Amino acid sequence: MLEGKFDEASLLKKVIDAMKDSVKLCNFNCTENGISVQAIDDSRVLLISLLIEAGSFEDYRCDRNIVLGLEMESLNKIIKNGNASDMLTLVAEDSPDALNLIFEDKRRDRIAEYSLKLMDIDQDFLKIEDMKFDAVVNMPSAEFAKICRDMKTLSESLQIIITKDSVKFNSEGDFGSGSVVIKSFTDLEKTEESVRITLEKPINLTFGAKYLNDIIKSTPLASQVTIKLCDKQPALFEYQLPSGYLRFYLAPKFEDEE
Amino acid sequence: MCGRYAMAVDPNDLPQYFGEQNLAVDEMHDSEMAQPRFNIGPAQYAPVYYSHSNCQRRNDSPDNKFVEDEADGDASTRVIRYMKWGMIPFWTKRISDYSPFKTFNAKAESIKDGHRVWKMVRSRTRCVVPMLGYYEWLNKKSETSKAITKIPYFIKRKDSKLMFLAGLWDKSIFSDEETTHVIYSFSIVTGPAPQQLEWLHHRMPRVLEPGTKEFDLWLDPKHDWDDKLMSCLQPYDKDDLEWFEVSRDVGNVRNEGEHLIQRAPKRPTDRPIKKGSIMNWVKVKTKEHHISEEPSEEEACDSSILSAGPESPSHRFLHTPRESATPLTPSPQKRTISELLSGSHDKVKVKDEKKPKTEV
């Protein structure tokens, strides 16, 4: 039996909103520690790893491991019906064929209950190699989102160049080019505004702007995004949850690609 | 329905194939009419297996050369004859009146009712049609539009021996001033699909298992039509068949090759990996591992365990208790990137294809 109560439905709303455009069908693996999802987008360039630990819930119990096969679009439709401030409880039996979602209005006596049919999704489980990163950038998520959006207006590729204390986002398109440079910066009053760059080796990688624009749909989840990079390896973009994370592994573009 | 099947066995090897299932082959005719094919459609020639009682032979056979050899009047002869698929009733006057697409299947219900096409043949010329397996198309509705995708499946015996479908055949003679054409043709009997295959199509050919009394009764040329024969045409619900998605190439009857009866690669991990794919950094584990071994705490919440969402995953709504609750025994099979890159597909454990069986 799974019973997970969120103090506010907004957390799951934001998570689903961040994922639904990249992956259509996901297995949600529920264990006593929380709920996790690993999924790859159709083009197999972006890999999403979600972990909502029990600590992100107000109450959480899961007696035995359950796999919930969910269609993201359907889940999103139901989630959107609840108010962001509602208390949201997820309920599933041990061998479920449906996931129940219960929204409770905290101010009024209003309870909305939905049942979502589960899918049997044929998925392999994949293990990503442990990766070592040469550069780590912590920056405001909203700033990163703006850069990705702005640069996409110029080109379908975004180059990320990291040198000693600065990160350069560079975009070269048919009609022009543009770049944004940000430097390490510490705001003691508003720590979420800080930029921190940790570097072992300089980085010069190019990514698909389309995927970055899918990733930044997670911006409402966290004030900061952590970007971890290493030459010729997937980059890791991480948004922290109250307890857990939403991570995106994005394969870099190679010059000889079409 | 059964409108396409695979019978890529050389005529010379047929007696051996039949022998494996303890079926005698006394005669073989017209094997030059067809090439072994993985993609046989109506109007093409393919082997058909039937019994001939000797008395019947004398009246019926166009060539009586074997009659003298058969001293024992009660014995029946087992014959393989290559025939045209799509039965031409013997009373058809002109070959131009005939379309194989009208009679490539014989509905068990129409046979029972004594439809004029089947009334004569149901009594005297019953046969079985040997094959490696047959194709059936699943009509899959798009979730977003009214479009319907047709996905071909191949249905075969799990032990890969020949599968036999109940059939009816006839012999028609067309003559003009100069020549006389004799055409042997056959039809495959279909009926409502058994529960296990309803999800795929509501009709299914009638499978007869060699060695059963139904098989022998259906082929008994001396047994006139009665209700007993109808009992041979029950939906086939034994669990010795298997099925899987195959290449859409089979849709065109001109396509040919063994790949038509091989599992279509459908998982993202089965597809070739491009240089820019995240799959280059991922190791594949099978689903069974995750379910059977109740992942450890570390694994369940470990960010390094990543699962793929397939591009066109096979999925269905769950209506029954999940089978995953039952522990599965196989040990996890691991696949490394190098294996993935080498394109070897055989190490991937394909999930039980029977899973979608209760789609309503």
TrEMBL record, chain A:
InterPro entries: DNA_clamp_sf (IPR046938), Pr_cel_nuc_antig (IPR000730), Pr_cel_nuc_antig_C (IPR022649), Pr_cel_nuc_antig_CS (IPR022659), Pr_cel_nuc_antig_N (IPR022648). The keyword Nucleus applies. Pfam families: PCNA_C, PCNA_N. Residues 1-124 form the Proliferating cell nuclear antigen PCNA N-terminal domain. Its main location: nucleus. It comes from the Eukaryota. GO terms for cellular component: chromatin; chromosome, telomeric region; nuclear replication fork; nucleoplasm; PCNA complex; site of double-strand break. GO terms for molecular function: DNA binding; DNA polymerase processivity factor activity; identical protein binding. Keywords: DNA replication, DNA-binding, Nucleus. It is found in: Nucleus. Residues 127-253 form the Proliferating cell nuclear antigen PCNA C-terminal domain. Coiled coil: none annotated. NCBIfam families: pcna. This protein is an auxiliary protein of DNA polymerase delta and is involved in the control of eukaryotic DNA replication by increasing the polymerase's processivity during elongation of the leading strand. Belongs to the PCNA family. This is DNA sliding clamp PCNA.
TrEMBL record, chain B:
It comes from the Eukaryota. The keyword DNA damage applies. This is DUF159-domain-containing protein. Residues 344-360 have a biased composition (Basic and acidic residues). Coiled coil: none annotated. It holds the Pfam family SRAP. GO terms for molecular function: lyase activity; peptidase activity; single-stranded DNA binding. InterPro entries: SRAP, SRAP-like. Residues 287-360 are annotated as: Disordered. The keyword Hydrolase applies. Keywords: Covalent protein-DNA linkage, DNA damage, DNA-binding, Hydrolase, Lyase, Protease. GO terms for biological process: protein-DNA covalent cross-linking repair; proteolysis. Belongs to the SOS response-associated peptidase family. Residues 326-341 have a biased composition (Polar residues). It comes from Kuraishia capsulata CBS 1993. SUPFAM superfamilies: BB1717-like (SSF143081).
